[in-house]
UniProtKB/TrEMBL annotation:
This is ATP-binding cassette domain-containing protein. It comes from the Bacteria. Transmembrane segments: none annotated. Keywords: ATP-binding, Nucleotide-binding, Transport. It holds the Pfam family ABC_tran. Residues 3-204 form the ABC transporter domain. The keyword Plastid does not apply. GO terms for molecular function: ATP binding. InterPro entries: AAA+_ATPase, ABC_transporter-like_ATP-bd, ABC_transporter-like_CS, ABC_Transporter_VariousFunc, P-loop_NTPase. PANTHER family: ABC TRANSPORTER ATP-BINDING PROTEIN ALBC-RELATED (PTHR42939). Gene3D superfamilies: P-loop containing nucleotide triphosphate hydrolases.
């Protein structure tokens, strides 16, 4: 999917978070959105995802290749997102959670392979409420990277990860970002070291 923002701005109450954001995000490329704490990176990512409404300007999402059955409503099925504010279902086990997720977005590997890849094979039958914060983050990454979507949005993707978790993140990036649109909101260079473009939100104030 290609996503274009034209003169897009976001205001909370009287405060403009950013304005006149003009950019086209193209499938097959990866982009980092950087900026100080509170500068609006997460807000911009949520607007790109369609989870938050913008206050001015436009945003359009179009398939990268001609698609017969495309419409704006189904475009959300083409977006997978990882973000600290998006919660997993605590009452489910990891396996149940991935099975549940699969009803909305197909996964590109078996659940057992997915859990194995992110180092959670022994925790498949454990309820997520008993997961550590790093285990939860690994599950969130798994759910997004393994979703069969054209678009992958990552907000602070290595939050709570240990060294091995960061290595898994980099491996997922190598294997599962090919020909997708990837947008990372981050202040940590190792989270976006492979991005083809770096956008500073402070340029749109
Ligand atoms: N729902 C909301 N209502 C009012 N203000 C909000 C809301 N969400 C975010 N903000 C404000 O918008 C600004 C940008 O927040 P945002 O979370 O997008 O920043 P960020 O760059 O992702 O920060 P960080 O690096 O700390 O994660 C902040 O000033 C924040 O207080």
């Amino acid at each position: 999917m290609n996503i274009t923002l034209q003169n897009t701005g976001k205001r909370y109450n009287r405060e403009w978070i950013f304005r006149k954001f003009n950019y086209t995000f193209l499938q097959g490329n990866s982009y980092a959105i950087t900026g100080a704490n509170g500068s609006g990176k997460s807000t911009l990512l949520q607007i790109i995802a369609g989870a938050t409404l913008h206050s001015e300007g436009t945003i359009t999402r179009k398939p990268a290749a001609a698609a017969n059955n495309y419409n704006e409503e189904t475009s959300y099925q083409q977006i997978a997102i990882v973000a600290p504010y998006l919660d997993v279902v605590e009452e489910m086990t990891a396996i149940e959670f991935l099975q549940f997720h699969q009803n909305f977005k197909p996964l590109v590997a078996t659940i057992s392979d997915i859990l194995n890849t992110v180092g959670l094979s022994k925790a498949g039958h454990k309820e997520i409420r008993y997961f550590s914060s790093g285990m939860k983050q690994r599950l969130k990454l798994a759910q997004a990277f393994f979703s069969d979507t054209t678009t992958l949005l990552l907000d602070e993707p290595t939050t709570n990860l240990d060294e091995a978790g960061v290595a898994i993140y980099k491996q997922l990036w190598q294997q599962y970002t090919h020909n997708r649109l990837v947008v990372v909101s981050s202040n940590d260079p190792q989270e976006y070291e492979n991005c083809t473009a770096v956008i500073s939100i402070s340029d749109y104030k």
